[in-house]
Amino acid sequence: MKATEQPYAYATLLERLEELYEVEFTWLKVEQLVQGLVNLDRNTQDFILGWAERLLTTNVYISHEFIIRVVEALDRLERRVIEAWAVHAADTFDQQGLRPALAVIQQVDSFLESAHAHAEGVAFDEVESILSTFVCGLSGRWLKLAQGESVYTDSETLYLPNITAKLVKSKDNFLLCKAQVAFMWAQTRFGSFRVDFATAFADYPDREQALAAFHALDTLRLEAYMERELPGLWRDMQRIERLRLDEMREEGVHGGTPLQAAWETCRGVLHTPSATVEDVLALVPQVLGLPIPQPVYQTRLNPEAVTACMLARMEREKILLRVKLAELVKEHKEETPPDLPLSGEVQEKKEVAPPEFEMREVQEGQGMELVLDDKPIAPPEDVKQLLTSIMLDWGDVPPEFLVPAGDGEYDPSLYQKEEKDIEDVWKGIYHEEGAFLYREWDFARQHYRKNWCVLRELELPPGDPAYVDKVLDKYQGMIKHLRRTFEAMRDENRLLKRQSQGDDVDIDALVEALADSRDGSEMSDKLFQHMHRADRSMAVMFMVDMSGSTKGWINDAEREALVMLCEVLEKLGDSYAIYGFSGIGRKRCEIYRIKAFDDLYNSATKARIAGIVPKDYTRLGVAIRHLTEKLNTVEAKTRLLITLSDGKPEDYFDIYNTQYGIEDTRQALFEARRTGIHPFCITIDQRGKDYLPHMYGHANWVEIDDVKKLPLKVADIYRRLTS
Amino acid sequence: MENTANAHNHALIHDPSTYLIEKEPYYVPVNNEITLFEAAYDNHLPLLLKGPTGCGKTRFMEYMAWRLRRPMITVSCHDDLTTSDLVGRYLVKNGETVWVDGPLTRAVRSGGICYLDEIVEARKDTMVVIHPLADDRRIMPIEKLGQLLEAPDSFCLAISYNPGYQSVLKELKQSTRQRFVAIEFDYPKPALEREIIMHETGLAPAVTDKLLKLAEMTRNLKDNGLEEGASTRLLVHAGKLISKGVEPRAACQGAIALALTDDRDMIAAINELIGALF
């Protein structure tokens, strides 16, 4: 872009916008837009028209409205903010539809107000990973982080809002998030919820007021814990509280007045290391009716959520612990040899005492240990976690929890969290519950559509158990040949002698060389031996097209090819996985596990291969993203993602059947490559050359006319990558 | 055999006394490992030390070598370690070939202790050389010399590995592991770890307690993004830096967070934990 370029003239702009908005059909007026644009410099015109074109692919009315508003707001908005505003409008359209999206465009001022939140706020997605790890490092129950409308915990999950922007600078907002997470952790860790919320405040005329007083007093107690346990964080918490008070004073908001004497007295009581939640309850009457301190890091108390969550957990963990203890007793019996009878004594049938568990303090301040029949035992990690969680709820482990479960108490439904049947969830209104959400690339918008595809992993019903044997019979000769082909690629350790470099002297070569030099010949420099070591490290993921169009010979061929591949890959010893993919529309993308990396090639896997049947459509991008994540969890030097497909990306009456689908697939493959994966495509579609080079690159796809050639093609790909 | 004897006369001999540990290494027993080691040693049984990295296995070996007054030769195993690296090889000197003993041969000849650290890192074909030494034969054939060394009573073979890093490719073969008496190590109990860190670093109790708390936090992250939590060794490293005047946060970030992982998010999270304590 040269700076000297002339701005577009009125006529040029009018023609371009009439074409852009197809005014003959849409009846949209563009003269006003042209008036706004004509006096701008060329660079700004291009910027606005570029974004208008991008938004046009989302919705014509949003794009039209955008030009009107952006010209009005040009003086007040930086380009960075305009871009954020346009993307926010498009995202709103994706999630809520046209009316809310138009509101985003029309209410540019309210967007400006929230621009601070966008500029200096911290988004949940940005902090989730770090703070999840942070809270996992703090001792106690494993806590999850989740996005919620407000900041509170139900004692298992810590809820944070989408954006935290209470303070001016983003680094302080991050500190605030961290302080809030630590505060909620402290609530679970130091017994804030060992209160019967249903009865504890029943005698107060104003329950809400009493709850607020309780929460404020408990905050004082928790602050003391923070000061003792996490002094560095406590300093940060005090700093952001001071910052918040300074900001309030600047804004003329009344706040930060010294606490009244009653609060200070309570603080003195609650700052002792032995202070408990009972002490907090006892102090509530002393501060009722007084103004309540609310430090910035104090989170909302949600007694209903806490009670519901705790009741379900306490019941579940009681029976689960008893089941685990019964298993421990069983293991302990197997490890301990029975006492031998003393010689000469007639062995009487002894009454076997039931096993007795108890929790005992190790040493002063050294924590508790589990004791079985007076001997300390080391419980496995999951039992340790369970005991920790129970002690957090109860303060200790009640004796009735330490009675091993008897027969008939092993009903998993009593201690496993209720999980909905996937098929039921799929059918229901809330069918996104528990599903994987993936973004999708909108090439026209040049941006991702967030959480656009809903994907589930489903079980594949097994097919004919004898199928694999039939295939093996049918292709005996072919499989032998393939085995030889793949075995030739198998590398073996071998000692290479007479090398010019190596890790040891080849004494035979050396003796010869010395003899040569004595009689005047030239001495060879190949005097070393070197151990050539096989160092294969491959993981391959087969992504099998299960769309409806594979019905018939293609599906048969796919399954036969997979049987042959499994047979030879087992020989090679590389790790491999097979997943099928299909679906209808972006809200119902499906992945079928045929063989995971950890699965053995056994009768169950063979039955799943036999069970591969044509399903619906081919939304490739989301499948690639999901399987890329899986492939990246495997330790290997070389990772291959091989797509077996009969055609190009397509979905049910969807934009995916257009260039959009090809571009999204291409972008998903880019993402895979960035993580070090080598994607390949083996296709049976003769029109593949029209779009496959664009998606996979020229050298990374192959078209076959006979699927029997498929395993050989895989062998070629292997050779190319490992030779 | 004359030639080989002659060859050995020309060999580069290493003085075993160079491998003696003169000064008592600082070691606090965690369990009954000393008794167990001595019983195995008296019965000429080889030893296998299992435990996470940095929990004191090597220090224990040094202490036992000092206690038994035997020279100790340590080999840090790696996947390029050849049999010749352990047994010995011919070198060329002034146009003549000269035999040089490898560390294992030196330990056998001198009746010392051979400690093969991180044994699973070595290749399986290299490791078979220890088999005849690790059963009741206690012999070591040196093919290139045509010799068969018999290990004296005072010779001891010890190997170590970390079960936490096992993968299918890196696990000890049954034929190897079943020759050894195993001693399991773990991080010391908090009170003992506190004593060790204070002794090794000279830190004040208050700072030591913060280091121990940080160790506990990182150990909570095991299998949640970290392969291992901070070992006693890392705590000592951080403590030594702090003793030398390095600011505690910087010391812990360098000696613990960055030493534990390369994952950026994980480093950031550990740094937040460090910041919460110091």
Query: What is the CA-based Rg of chain A, rounded?
Result: 34 Å
SSE class of chain A:
alpha/beta
Task: Quote the distance from N terminus to C terminus of chain B.
Answer: 68 Å
Biggest sheet record of chain A: 8 strands, mixed
* Strand residues, percent of chain B: 15-25%
User: Count of DSSP helices of chain B?
Assistant: 12
Report mean pLDDT of chain A, rounded to a whole number: 81
Query: Which parts of chain B are unreliable, with pLDDT below 50 for 5 consecutive residues or more?
Result: 1-10
Strand fraction of chain A? 5-15%
Q: How do the strands of the widest beta sheet of chain B line up side by side?
A: 2-5-8-1-9
Helix/strand-derived class of chain B? alpha/beta
Major sheet strand order of chain A: 9-10-16-15-14-17-18-19
Run of helices and strands of chain B: HHEHEHEEHEHEEEHEHHHHH
Helical content of chain B stands at 40-55%
Principal-axis shape of chain A? globular
Task: Outline the low-pLDDT stretches of chain A.
Answer: 339-347, 425-430
Instruction: Write down the overall geometry of chain B.
Output: elongated
Summarize this structure briefly.
Chain A is α/β, with parallel strands linked by helices.
